[in-house]
Amino acid sequence: MATEVVRMVCPNLKCRALLTAPVAARGKVVRCRKCGTKVHIPETAPVKTDAANDAKTV
Ligand SMILES: [Zn+2]
C-alpha cells in the first residue's frame, strides 16, 4: 500500500483546500472538489531532497 499521491493547495485564495491526486495524474489538470477550480498538477515533485548541496562535516 505505497500509493504515492501529489499534494497541493487549491490556487483559489478563497478556497485553499488541500488537494491530493495520484502520481499517475501528473501533468494533468484536475478540479478542486470544493470550488471546481482547475488545478494543474506539476510533473515533478515540488519537494526535493538533495543532500549534495549541504557541506559535509566529517
Ligand atoms: Zn478549491
Please describe the structure with a list of short key phrases separated by commas or semicolons.
binds zinc ion, single chain, mainly beta, 0% helix, two-stranded antiparallel sheet
Description:
The protein has 58 residues and is mainly β. The chain has a domain at 5-44. The protein has no helices and 4 strands. It has strands spanning 5-9, 18-22, 29-31, 38-40. The strands form 2 sheets. Strands 1-2 form a two-stranded antiparallel ribbon. The chain starts with a strand and ends in an 18-residue tail after the last strand. The mean pLDDT is 84.
Count helical runs: 0
Class by alpha and beta content: mainly beta
Summarize the biggest pleated sheet.
2 strands, antiparallel
CA distance, first residue to last residue? 37 Å
Please write out the topology.
Layout: E1 5-9, E2 18-22, E3 29-31, E4 38-40
Antiparallel strand pairs: 1-2, 3-4
Bound molecules: zinc ion.
The site of zinc ion has 8 residues, from loops.
What's a quick, concise take on this entry?
The protein has 58 residues and is mostly beta strands. The protein has strands at residues 5-9, 18-22, 29-31, 38-40.
